[in-house]
Structures are given as structure tokens and as C-alpha cells.
Amino acid sequence: MNWISNYVRPKINSLFSKHDTPDNLWTKCPECNTMLFHRELADNLNVCTNCDHHMHITPRARFSALFDGGVFSEIKVPEPIEDPLKFRDQKRYPERMKAAQRSTGEKEAMLVAEGEMGRTPIVAAAQDFSFMAGSMGMYVGNAFIAGVERAIALKRPFVMFSAAGGARMQEGILSLMQMPRTTVAVEMLKEAGLPYIVVLTHPTTGGVTASYAMLGDVQIAEPNALICFAGPRVIEQTIREKLPEGFQRAEYLLDHGMLDRVTHRSQMKSELVTILRMLGQMTPAVAGDLPAPTPEVKPLEAAKAPEGAKPKTTPAKDAQK
Ligand SMILES: [Zn+2]
């Protein structure tokens, strides 16, 4: 009997059991309904290879593509009070949080990091639309401010990638208070003379649009991103009128003077580098891929480094004079 239970049964079970294939190998493009293979999609930075639709990208994936060699260090965010209103709809707020943490593998809806982008030191923050629609609560406010304070301490520009359904209703007035808090933080950057660049991604709406996402020195958006305070459906129902084609989309807003640029995700890094180096009066960026910055320089290399670095830095000093 032993061989039956030890050998035959597992064999039969393995034949009939479901194979361990992840069910998320394919993603359907919400715009053109094309089935896209996950690896191909990830290589294309979550932009549809068929219709060029810019899908959500997690902050982690974005930072990996943005920072040189995918190297960045996260900035610690002060913890806010948990569930201050003891909010409950169909589910309790802490349960919703736990579900979002499990599905995304992230702690909250914003990631803040520092690193180099095209050898340009920056501090960046990105909102995670897959985490409770990237909604702005106390943590997001704290994260934004932690990023700004770090940027000021390091004298670096601050780049914000926004994506949000608005304020987090489970935190009520406390989430709305993040609007003035973040606005004051943007003012702190201005006082320190540091550039604040906003990259608006699909969709950026509600209280986020009404605060830090619209206060950038340069406002860039990804193609066809919905950027609004109240959505087109709400407006249509209120004014009972048909809205023009492409209303509240990035290209429409660019035409009407609300944005400075609409940039494809694949071009975003080089464009940001160009803008930031111009604003920071640095030499133009080196074209092509750069190796990851080395965290520790060995004594031998350190001795060699100034020689190699000299020809690059001297023209900059001359140019500034
Ligand atoms: Zn598509």
C-alpha cells in the first residue's frame, strides 16, 4: 500500500492539479483591448505596444527605470495615526488598508526616494494608483513633506509623479488638510530656490489636482492622461451639455495653457534630465546609458577618479564664469 500513497497518489494528484502558472501573465489594454504579455509590457514601461496607451506603473517600477542603474534609496516617512475616525463603510478602513498592502506589496500610496537620474541628483516621489486609487491621506501628505525636506537638506530638485483619485475619504477632513500642508511644502522649495517638477499621470484628480500636482515650476503630463478636479461625467451631468472631444485630457490642457509639456513615458527621463540640468545651470547630460553609481569608491579608483572627471567639470566652471 505504501507505494500507492507515496508514489501513485502524488503522481495522479500532480496530473490533475492546477499547474502553478501565474494568472497575470497577460494584461488587457483598457483602450484597445489587445492582450499584452507581461514581460513585453514591463519592458515597454507599461505602455501598450499596440495603441500607446499609458497604463498605471507602480512607483517602484518607475523609479527602477528612472534612476541610473535602477539604484535609489527610499526616504523614511513619519507614521501617521491609524484610522483616526474609526471609519467604516462595507469594510473597516484598516481592513481595506491591509487588502491594499497585500495586493500591492507596498505600505502606502506614495513612495519617496533619492538617487541620480542621468547623473543628476534628485529627490522624487511617486503616487501608486494601484494602492486605494493613490488617494491622498495623512501618509501621502507626510511622504510629500518628507521628500521636500530631504530635497531642501540635500539642495536637490524635487520631482513629483502624481496619480490619484483624490483625497482619501476614510480620513475625512484630515485628508483634506494635506492640501494646505503640501502647498506650504511647495512654498518651502521655492524659498530654497529649488526646482519643483510635476509629472501628471493618468488619472490625477480631486484634491491632488487642487494642491501640489498643479504647483510645479514645470508641469509635464503623460499622453492622454485625465487631469481634472471634478471628472467629465460629473460636469456633464451638472451643466447638461456635451463636453468637447478630449476634454480634460493632457493634450487638450496643453492646448489651453494648463501644461508646459506632454511627454511620452519612454522620453520622460531624458526630458527631465534636460530640464533639471538647465534649471540647475549644469552641463548638458551625457547621452546614452550610464552605469549605476558606485556606493563605495575603492582607494585606487578614488585616486584615478579626479583625473577622469576633470575634463568634464572644467568646461562647466568656465561656462558659468
Ligand atoms: Zn492598447
From TrEMBL:
Record-listed E.C. numbers = 2.1.3.15
Keywords from the named record: ATP-binding, Cytoplasm, Fatty acid biosynthesis, Fatty acid metabolism, Lipid biosynthesis, Lipid metabolism, Metal-binding, Nucleotide-binding, Transferase, Zinc, Zinc-finger
Reactions it catalyzes: N(6)-carboxybiotinyl-L-lysyl-[protein] + acetyl-CoA = N(6)-biotinyl-L-lysyl-[protein] + malonyl-CoA
Name its GO BP terms in alphabetical order: fatty acid biosynthetic process; malonyl-CoA biosynthetic process
Name a GO molecular-function annotation: zinc ion binding
Residues holding Zn(2+): C29, C32, C48, C51
Q: Where does the record place Low complexity bias? A: 300-321
Q: Where is the CoA carboxyltransferase N-terminal domain?
A: 25-294
User: Pfam families given for it?
Assistant: Carboxyl_trans, Zn_ribbon_ACC
- GO CC annotations on file: acetate CoA-transferase complex
- Whether DNA repair counts among this entry's keywords is no
- Where do the ZnF regions (C4-type) fall? 29-51
Family per record = Belongs to the AccD/PCCB family.
- Described function: Component of the acetyl coenzyme A carboxylase (ACC) complex. Biotin carboxylase (BC) catalyzes the carboxylation of biotin on its carrier protein (BCCP) and then the CO(2) group is transferred by the transcarboxylase to acetyl-CoA to form malonyl-CoA.
Full protein name: Acetyl-coenzyme A carboxylase carboxyl transferase subunit beta
Q: Which organism is it from?
A: Celeribacter baekdonensis B30
